[in-house]
């Protein structure tokens, strides 16, 4: 049955791809990969119902489908729009999309504290990447930025609401992974915030995953806070036999020397975790001996995290190849036979004062 | 006198109560629909009537009804959107307060046509006294056998529930309304799926405005073919306009959509002219979110034709020189009104009412408000006007629901038509705190009344 399933042909930035019906434009673009993949701040493929909120993944549908070739009137959120057969989508080839995306990034940043130098998320922050790729270099916002107090959601999780972009990922995580969601969005408009209403701690076997799904530094690991910068640490794949049946036990240890600084789930190239892990693995097992180490984690070489690693980095080129331009090296002269000063039979210690070239002249006998 | 269909009996004393309503021809349409027409017959009449949604967007109601999915064994719902929160709009309040049975009859007919056995009236929280009126009317109707089980022996069951909102503008958006009705946070859903497929409790749902559903009653009474004869072109029937602002006679008027804007503002039958013999400066013809129009473009289109009170004519010229009929919240501004201040008021409203779900609206509305505040209070810069334009441009069309557009349009139109007033505010920071800009070259083509 799987063989005769009809596949939809989609063109994204003039690159064709065949996908199953029901695939979103974003996931179709991820099948192509590379630059045509729209950035996604709120969409999370592992979380049902996520997406559509941050508007960074907007694209232009220039042709609706083969059956109805009309373009869509507005830019659409690619993470929540499913493909149609024959659809044509413009992402980076559309100046309109790039302009609108720049606008969205600007909106996301106007109230962001831009405290990257002291933020634990720096180096693995999606907002940093997004701002680097789509933002402008200066802000036009002249007003006081919105701030919130920092909140401890229990002793393990720190909520820094000022940095939050309200992607709702942590809400979906708590809904779908834990028994009972204890935090949510309070308030509305730009006063909306993540919170527990009456200060209470989030305590649940899987609640630590909200740290991993948070695209910015709003939810950080209290056990790792200010301990180290992520790019000074070496990510190492490791696993253990976790007793929790829902936990896969496959993690990344962020180490320096033999010390484990933090434990996270394994994230793919889009920053999405491969499998969620339980809080015991994340917070309690910070000893190298708790884990079976598999080997270094491969990190995209564009990432600042790969700075301190030797995996997957580019080897320096041999400059001789270019210089010689295909010629074989040939011996022009032997400096040892030509040079007058290279006379091993003359004992320098027996010369009075500093040596002079005259001392090396071969006296004709 | 314009012909009336909805408010023709509004003047009768006691029309709020069942007995008076019934003895004045009430529930005749329901009887006709249930006994003679059948669901498809009602749908045909509504389609023929060309009735367009009265909530603002003007989507053809018959078409909306025909989109509803009809899977086996899944209940369908009709939701009446009484969350009338658009500043300047108060027409539904009048209907519900004075002729609640008209709405209930409309709900009965519409539910019958859609095959919905449960119907919800979602009413805004600020209308605190109206749920009682509606519930009393529902109880009366139920007593007389118009609601409940096996209505008129046709085997059709219907229950109507009134649900109060908590006073959020965003809950007037149909998917946010559904979320709120389900007891969740009133965030708009991402469409598709549309409510006609997956709405309330993931069942097919139709959400209609109060006035739309009430208009179904006269349509069944006189027939769709007769209804078309009211109004002009694709703007069929009558429309309730809630007129407010600097006019002599603010209030709710039922107009047949064949009169001109000028007649509506200046005739004694309707608004009765501008108050205190002032001159007309601008008007927002369809509730706060539609573009504001200066007087010259309000009375005549850019092509020089007379502008009529119809969906098409008010939208003539697109957003460059036109506006929208919207929900019929007709806000008139005289020469003493400050457009910058007015725009700031709206920007503040949309900032306050943004749900905060998607980024352009959450961040952009607040930003616009702050920039406008600077301009209004004499702290603006020339570049702020272009900045405002750029912000609204980046909000519009990039949000989940139309609130982003609604926040962007008033700012865009104010800058488009009244840029010199903004510039005057920037260039004269001190003077602008003491007096208003007044009329400019774009304003009133009607001569000022002679000094008394």
UniProtKB/TrEMBL annotation, chain A:
Keywords attached to this entry? 2Fe-2S, 4Fe-4S, Iron, Iron-sulfur, Membrane, Metal-binding, NAD, Translocase
Name a single GO cellular component: membrane
- Location (main, coarse): membrane
* Domain annotation 2Fe-2S ferredoxin-type: ranges: 8-95
Report domain 4Fe-4S His(Cys)3-ligated-type positions.
96-135
Q: Which Pfam families match?
A: Fer2_4 (PF13510), Fer4_Nqo3 (PF22117), NADH-G_4Fe-4S_3 (PF10588)
Localization per record? Membrane
Q: Which family does it belong to?
A: Belongs to the complex I 75 kDa subunit family.
* PANTHER family according to UniProt: NADH-UBIQUINONE OXIDOREDUCTASE 75 KDA SUBUNIT, MITOCHONDRIAL, RESPIRATORY NITRATE REDUCTASE
Question: What name goes with this protein?
Answer: Fe-S-binding domain-containing protein
Biological source species = Chitinophaga silvatica
TrEMBL record, chain B:
The record's section on InterPro entries has: ComplexI_51kDa_subunit, NADH-UbQ_OxRdtase_51kDa_CS, NADH-UbQ_OxRdtase_suF, Nuo51_FMN-bd, Nuo51_FMN-bd_sf, Nuop51_4Fe4S-bd, Nuop51_4Fe4S-bd_sf
Which top EC class is given?
translocase
Q: What are the recorded Gene Ontology BP terms? A: cellular respiration
Report the domain of life of the source organism: Bacteria
A Pfam family for this UniProt protein? NADH_4Fe-4S
What protein family does this chain belong to? Belongs to the complex I 51 kDa subunit family.
What's this protein's name?
NADH-quinone oxidoreductase subunit F
